[in-house]
Amino acid sequence: MIPVASPLTDQLQGWGTAIGALIAAGALVAAMVAYRAQSRQLRHQQKQIADQQELNRQQSEVLALQARDLGESLAERRRAQAVRVFMYASHSRGVDDQDRWTFSATLKNASDYPIRGIVVRWHRGTAAWGEPMESPWLPPGAPAAQFSREMDRREGGDLTPAAIGAVIEFRDAAGVRWRITPSGGLEELAQVHAGL
What we know:
Blueprint: H1 7-79, E1 85-93, E2 100-109, E3 115-124, E4 127-128, E5 133-138, E6 145-152, E7 164-171, E8 176-180, E9 186-191
Antiparallel strand pairs: 1-2, 2-6, 3-4, 3-5, 3-7, 7-8, 8-9
C-alpha cells in the first residue's frame, strides 16, 4: 500500500520548503552584505597602503635632503679650523750677493686651536727641492712661522718665483691632515688620530 499524503503533511512540507528558501535567501543576503563590507574594508586598506607608500616616498626625499645638508654641514665644520690656517710665499735677493735668493713660506694659524705635525715641502717646478722642513706645532694666535730656503743662482736652474714654491701640510685639532698649496688651495689628505 502506498501511503497517501494528508493535506496537513503537504502543508507542513510546503512551509518547510518556504522556511528553507527564506533561510537560504537570508544567508545569501548576509553573504552579500559581508562581501560588500570586506570589499570596502579592502579598498580602505589599499588606500591606506597607497597613502603610506606616498608618505614613505616623501619622507625618503626629505631624508635625502637632510642627509645632504648634514654632509655639507659636517664638511664645513670639518674644514672650519683648516680654512683659518694661511700660507703665503715671498722671495728676496741677497743684499751683498745678488746671486743669492731666499725663498720663504710663512704659516699663520688664525684658528682657535693649535695645528700639529707641520711639514713644509719645497719644489722647483714639479720636482722636490731639498728635504722637507718640519715643526711640531703652531699654537693659535702665535706669531707666524717662517720657513726659508736659500739658493745661489750660480747653482743653475730656474729661480723665478713662479718656479719655486712650497706646500705645507699640517694636522688640525680633530686629527685631519691638510695640505695648503702655493695657490692657496686647501686639500684634505687623510684622517689620523688626534693624539698622534
